[in-house]
Amino acid sequence: MKTILILLGAVFLLSACSPTVGSEKWCKQLKEKAKGEWTANEAVEFTKNCIIRLDDDKK
C-alpha cells in the first residue's frame, strides 16, 4: 500500500510539470522538439494555438 501511494505521488508531481496545451510556454517547448517526434494531436493543437491563434478579442 505504501508503494502505491509513493508511485501515485510521483506521477502527480511529474504530471504537474508540463505546461498547459496552447500556452506560450507549450508552443515554445514544442518548437524546440523535433517535428518527427510530434504526435498527431500535438501537431493539430500547435497549428490551432501557436500558428493561427484564433482570438475572439481581436475582431
Tag the structure with descriptive keywords:
single chain; mainly alpha; DUF3012 domain-containing protein; signal; DUF3012
Describe the structure.
The protein has 59 residues and is mainly alpha-helical. It has a domain at 18-56. The protein has helices spanning 2-15, 24-32, 40-52. It starts with a helix and ends in a 7-residue tail after the last helix. The relative contact order is 0.11. The mean pLDDT is 83. It comes from Photobacterium kishitanii. It holds the Pfam family DUF3012. InterPro entries: DUF3012. Keywords: Signal.
Element pattern in H and E: HHH
Strand content: under 5%
Q: What does the radius of gyration come to? A: 16 Å
Low-confidence stretches: none
InterPro entries: DUF3012 (IPR021379)
Pfam families: DUF3012
Keywords: Signal
Protein name: DUF3012 domain-containing protein
Give me the secondary-structure topology.
Blueprint: H1 2-15, H2 24-32, H3 40-52
Short description:
The chain is mainly alpha-helical. 61% of the residues lie in helices and 0% in strands. The longest helix is centred in the N-terminal third of the chain and has 14 residues, at 2-15.
